[in-house]
Please model this.
Amino acid sequence: MGKVSGKLSYVITEDFSDNKYTYQDLGYFTTNNFFDHTLYIGYKWLKPHSFYNSMYFNWNLYYSQHNIPRDYQALTLNSNINGQLKSLGSYYFAIEIDGEQHDYYEPRTSGYIFKRPSSWLLGTYLNSNDAKKFSYSGGIFHRFFHTNGSTSDELDLGTQYRFNKKLSVNMSSTITWKNNSLGYTTNVGDSVIFALRKVRSLENILTAKYNFNNKMGISFRARHYWSKLQNGQLKNLSTDGTLTDITGISTEADYNVNYFNIDMVYTWQFNPGSFFTITWKNAIGTSDTNVYDDYSKNLSNTLHSNELNTVSFKLIYYLDYLDLKRRNKRM
Model:
């Protein structure tokens, strides 16, 4: 419930899932057994002033509980400012503070929790006027954890070029660096083993769109995702959520993962509300322990791996009941 009109708005929400709820019930969910509470407060400046045309201030409070047993899970406070510049580009600035979390899911073993350290995040994102022939965007985000010197950084870059009214091409890249990132590694007997991990991820997406006319077009999207994880100092997780250093255990839990996907869709609107589409999907996935391979080597290995190709056809025909009724009367 809340107030969504006017300069000042606010919304209060609650989201509940018991421990029997599964993702097969409705849609896709990765977790269950939670009771979440969210408070949103926003204020709008819609009158142009100095460097901006509009400005939105948002304040968000998130409090999560584990349902059974009822226990604290997470507390997050986020504040951000975003809006439109005089140049018709957009901007976004954010700060976020996360309290210590009681994570019931990361241990991946019943009866354990992980006390994830508190952290804070700073981030900004800028986007030029995407109505122009050439536009660009960029964002950078930094998160610092209050234990073990853990940090996480993300860089987002994007460009778009409109050749004409029919053809446009977009390229985006997301790079993440995680150092001393605490997370699950493996199980050794009855012990749950965590590690300080070094994680590097890179995602490149190329998108192209071509419209033959206002009723027919084709879109192309190619995506390559690469992530490698190297484990450092191993730690034993206790049932109370604390970690202690361990030695003398060797684990082959380093991961090198690649995904390459192509989605191409042809769409024809042959009548109002009626569509015919042809879709081609190509999917390749690889996983190994070669964490020392570079990007070009990973991409080459992925493109030479087994692939899955699917082609699908879809016909949607809109029937107007009133039109059919009028035809029956004429007959």
Notes: The mean pLDDT is 92. Residues 87-330 form one domain. The longest strand covers residues 191-213.
